[in-house]
Design a protein that fits this description.
The chain has about 600 residues and is of the alpha/beta class. Helices cover about 35% and strands about 20% of the residues. The strands form 5 sheets. The protein has an 8-stranded parallel β-barrel with strand order 1-2-3-4-5-6-7-8, surrounded by 6 helices. β18 and β19 form a beta hairpin. The radius of gyration is 24 Å and the shape is globular.
Length: about 600
């Protein structure tokens, strides 16, 4: 007997995020275009208001891991989905990188995104600083596309209903076509969702969208209460890529809302075919499965999104300090308070998370401060939501003045210089923008593409879990540590790259990814030939990373506190400074090198 409510309460529209946030949340953004295109014909007929297909981490992952042209992916999806709006996530003045860009770069990027197929631009700023969205909104409107302003939802002493409503009013006045509530950590509760939507409906006359991650287990309830309060658009993920740090299942919300009397224009038979397809495709990416694929109520206390948890765990694993992860989780709220309660969303989640790791693994809090934290405290990302810690600000930026204007007002136009710098390897404007987003990774990608040497990460099935370069590896074994026995099953192995190798395995059934870097224990040197750090003049690093720049030469005299080199870890830059004064005797690194703690990277004669 059907219990469907025959009354009509109006339409509810769906945006499916499987082609962007679904796989970004659950398999580390590794879904390849070749596995998207075969299902596009059915996705295009299913009845979605839009499909989120681009932006977020997909641009970075295409270049860094998949060795795909992200622009070509967009063009192919645009061709394969002619009847459905294509949507992207854009970080305002940050675009898809991790710094603020000049206005002419923002204009150029949005122009090309629109020309290549994006219809709806979801625009957000990590600090909810509306000034960082002005240029992007204007560029979207100039291209006659849909500009969606975003409220990054979080919980703190300075984030109130009134503050979110006032931001919404500013976004409406700016010319946005709709508003999205972005609940990236799954902190929204059903009651708060109803309250927020009701208040927004009183003050703004724009369509409302709700984007809520399932991390805490409340997102489906939040969507129902939001719809009842007047929100007509919700983000969901097809069920085979739903749940955990992803989103509520599309099919679940279709049935629930249809039975409640809402008009839902999605074809359930097609949705069944779509979810069956992705269920099989997902198996191909087993080595990237998130450890946070279920409900994680810890987020309600730590406010740490699941994706951020995975990144932090990997950083600590690389340092042999995974047992300290709870210390990091306890440190994150303290760092967030010191920085004035920024919402934990890209790039502020990386800024706060990386600094929290440094505070835990070094001998004292803020002994090492990342360049991004310094830039944040100086106002380089915009207005902090609350008051920052004055002592920390003084320690980080000294007597330098804090930026009061819109940060991009201080950035000169960049496109002319970017075109000049990329002239040797960029074939068109899209290539220049690849270089603009990620200079080092982008240049490497473009040069390898030209040389025909692009090689994506190796995907391996469980029964093929041996090294791709023919080096045999055991596929299952037990290890004993401190009286405990663990079952290890190797599920995949990448090729040797610069004396290191990624291994994909399960530990007592839990998926893990480890980076194997063999060290020569007899000579005190690793395979890169670097000596071990032994004395005060041997300068090492507190966390694994890549060398961005070496600031000194052999023979230079340095003082305590001088910057010796800069590393990138978790996409954040950290200056490594001299702890002693003396002459630079030996430099064992160069730009681009991978470095780990315990190595003597620069040696200073005291």
């Amino acid at each position: 007997m059907s219990t469907q409510n025959t009354s009509t309460k109006g339409p509810v529209y769906f945006t499916d995020v499987v082609l962007r946030d679904g796989h970004q949340s659950l398999i580390a953004t590794r879904l390849r275009t070749e596995d998207m295109l075969p299902i596009c014909e059915k996705l295009d007929r299913a009845g979605y208001w839009s499909l989120e297909v681009w932006g977020g981490a997909t641009f970075d992952a295409c270049l860094r891991f998949l060795k795909e042209d992200p622009w070509e992916r967009l063009r192919q999806l645009h061709q394969a989905l002619p009847n459905t709006r294509l949507q992207m996530l854009l970080r305002g003045q940050n675009l898809l990188g991790y710094r603020h860009y000049a206005d002419d770069v923002v204009d150029a990027f949005i122009d090309k995104s629109a020309a290549n197929g994006i219809d709806v631009f979801r625009l957000f700023d990590a600090l909810n600083d509306e000034r960082n969205l002005i240029t992007a909104v204007n560029a979207v409107k100039r291209n006659q596309k849909h500009a969606q302003g975003t409220l990054c939802y979080t919980v703190s002493p300075v984030h109130t209903l009134d503050s979110f409503v006032e931001l919404a009013v500013k976004l409406e006045d700016m010319g946005c076509d709709s508003l999205a509530i972005k609940d990236m950590a799954g902190l929204l509760t059903p009651f708060s969702a109803e309250q927020l939507v009701s208040r927004l409906k009183e003050r703004v006359d724009l369509p409302l969208f709700l984007h809520s991650h399932s991390t805490s287990g409340m997102s489906a309830m939040c969507q129902l209460k939001a719809v009842e309060a007047g929100c007509q658009h919700i983000d969901t993920a097809i069920s085979s890529f739903a749940g955990g740090t992803s989103h509520p299942p599309t099919e679940t919300m279709v049935v629930a809302l249809r039975e409640a009397g809402y008009e839902v224009g999605l074809d359930m038979a097609l949705l069944k075919e779509i979810t069956d397809y992705f269920k099989e495709v997902r198996k191909k990416y087993h080595q990237y499965e998130s450890a946070y694929s279920g409900v994680d109520t810890d987020v309600l206390l730590s406010q740490v999104p699941g994706g951020m948890m995975s990144n932090l765990a990997n950083q600590l694993k690389e340092q042999g300090a995974l047992e300290r992860i709870n210390e990091v989780f306890a440190e994150i709220p303290k760092v967030r308070k010191d920085l004035g309660y920024p919402p934990l969303v890209t790039p502020t989640s990386q800024i706060v998370g990386t600094q929290a790791v440094l505070n835990v693994v070094t001998s004292e809090r803020y002994k090492s401060i990342t360049n991004e934290v310094k830039r944040y405290l100086q106002g380089g990302y915009g207005r902090a939501p609350g008051n920052v810690d004055a002592a920390l600000c003084k320690q980080a930026i000294g007597n330098e003045s804090v930026i009061e204007v819109r940060p991009a007002d201080l950035i000169k136009d960049e496109m002319v210089s970017l075109r000049k710098d990329a002239a040797g390897f960029a074939k068109n404007e899209e290539d220049v923008l690849i270089y603009a987003m990620f200079p080092d990774i982008g240049q490497t990608y473009l040069e390898q593409r030209e040389a025909g040497t692009l090689v994506p990460e190796v995907l391996q099935a469980v029964d093929q879990a041996t090294a791709s370069d023919a080096t045999p590896l055991a596929t299952e074994f037990n290890i004993s540590l401190h009286g405990e026995t663990y079952n290890i099953q190797l599920t995949g192995a990448g090729p040797h790259e610069q004396s290191q190798r990624h291994l994909y395995l399960t530990v007592d059934g839990i998926p893990e990814e480890v980076l194997l870097q063999p060290l020569n224990e007899y000579t005190g040197q690793n395979q890169s030939g670097r000596p071990a750090s032994r004395g005060p003049g041997d300068i090492s690093t507190s966390m694994p990373g890549n060398v961005v720049e070496v600031m000194v030469n052999e023979g230079d005299q340095v003082a305590i506190g001088d910057t010796l080199f800069i590393i990138e870890a978790m996409k954040m830059e950290t200056e490594i400074k001299a702890q002693v004064a003396g002459r630079v005797a030996n430099i064992h690194i160069k730009k681009g090198d991978r470095v780990t703690p315990g190595e003597a990277l620069i040696q200073i004669e005291i």
